[in-house]
Design brief:
328 residues, alpha/beta, eleven-stranded mixed sheet, 14 helices, binds pseudouridine-5'-monophosphate, binds manganese (II) ion, metal ion binding, hydrolase, metal-binding, RNA glycosylase activity, lyase
Length: 328
């Protein structure tokens, strides 16, 4: 099997860190990790490229260095140049959705991987980046108590000390059980300027969180304390979608119900022996439902998605700067 040589020499850890990210890390500067599944599997081209570039620009404007993470020709990369970012966006789902369990296989086969939250956290921590911005994380799926479909994002948060800035989790998931599971995993869950855990497209979920934070400095102090005590577990900072971009909860919920029906997503069908014959199983469920919700809401969910990712980038960059100042 022939493949192109890696564009940058990976360090002894097997990870290629871009010169800009390396310099920022060496000087204790602010760095923000970004995932690539959202680019390859979460949004269509060219909106995905446009969003990825705007998110990187927002991080820079707010004083931090962006580090998008993906596996290119079998080499995990932290920090992509504009050509690599463009290739990622154009390739879309040709890049394999790569969670923690998939990393070794993608690397061993010299493949291209779009990292999910779990895999992105893993690589961010490996190179020393404590802050990671995304849109939404995975969680406990509806009927998860029967199917055991629980995203590896949650177990990664339990064992990797990276702070993830997200807009909460989508209501395609079981939000209450997701929060219970995070508690079991020992994950600090903080809601930003609200007492309620946000549900991605909407500001509210009906679920209260035990910790409220009101400023980037307050977030940085929690991350700093987590690091100093070597707790070893992650932090989830949930930032609600900006009010003016929030989608209608009713419209979203009916689109979710419709897509669950299309995927024949019910406890009985999921547990039947026909389960493995179904087209939409395992890690294909999240992208399928997200895509159907986008179509069924006439694209309004995509606009909300883009707006909230940008808002998270703004907040995440400010937290990264505050953390870098605390460490000086
Ligand atoms: N939720 C979203 N948008 C996303 C994802 C989740 O609202 O793009 C992606 C993230 O990369 C997340 C992954 O880590 O899906 C979770 O997939 P799964 O449910 O298969 O664990
Ligand atoms: Mn799953």
């Amino acid at each position: 099997m022939s493949r192109a040589p890696p564009q940058e020499d990976p360090s002894p850890t097997g990870v290629a860190v871009s010169p800009e990210v390396e310099a920022a890390l060496a000087s204790g500067g602010a760095v923000v990790a970004l995932e690539s599944t959202i680019i390859c599997h979460g949004m269509p081209y060219p909106k995905n490229l446009q969003t990825a570039m705007e998110v990187e620009a927002i991080v820079r404007e707010n004083g931090a260095v962006p580090a998008t993470i993906a596996i290119l020709d079998g080499v995990p990369h932290v920090g992509l140049n504009s050509e690599q970012l463009k290739n990622l966006a154009i390739s879309g789902s040709q890049f394999q959705k790569t969670a923690r369990r998939d990393i070794a296989q993608v690397v061993a086969s010299g493949g291209n991987g779009a990292t999910t939250v779990s895999a992105t956290m893993f690589f961010a921590h490996k190179v020393g980046i404590p802050i990671f911005v995304t849109g939404g994380i995975g969680g406990v799926h509806r009927y998860g108590e029967k199917t055991m479909d629980i995203s590896s994002d949650l177990t990664e948060l339990g064992k990797t000390p990276v702070a993830v800035i997200s807009a909460g989790v989508k209501s395609i998931l079981d939000i209450a059980r997701t929060l219970e599971y995070l508690e079991t995993q020992g994950v600090t869950v903080a809601a930003y300027r609200t007492n309620e855990f946000p549900a991605f497209f909407t500001e509210t979920s009906g679920c209260k969180v035990p910790c409220r934070v009101d400023s980037p400095e307050e977030c940085a102090k929690i991350i700093y304390a987590n690091q100093n005590m070597h707790l070893g577990s992650g932090i989830l900072i949930a930032v609600p979608v900006p009010k003016q971009h929030a989608a209608s909860g009713k419209v979203i919920e009916s689109a979710i119900q419709q897509s669950l029906k299309e995927a024949e997503y019910s406890p009985n069908s999921l547990l039947s022996f026909l389960f493995l014959d179904k087209k939409i199983i395992g890690n294909a469920i999240t992208p399928f439902i997200l895509d159907r919700v986008k179509v069924l809401t006439g694209g309004s969910s995509l606009e909300a998605n883009i707006a909230l990712v940008k808002n998270n980038a703004l907040t995440g960059a400010k937290i990264a700067v505050a953390l870098s100042d605390l460490r000086k």
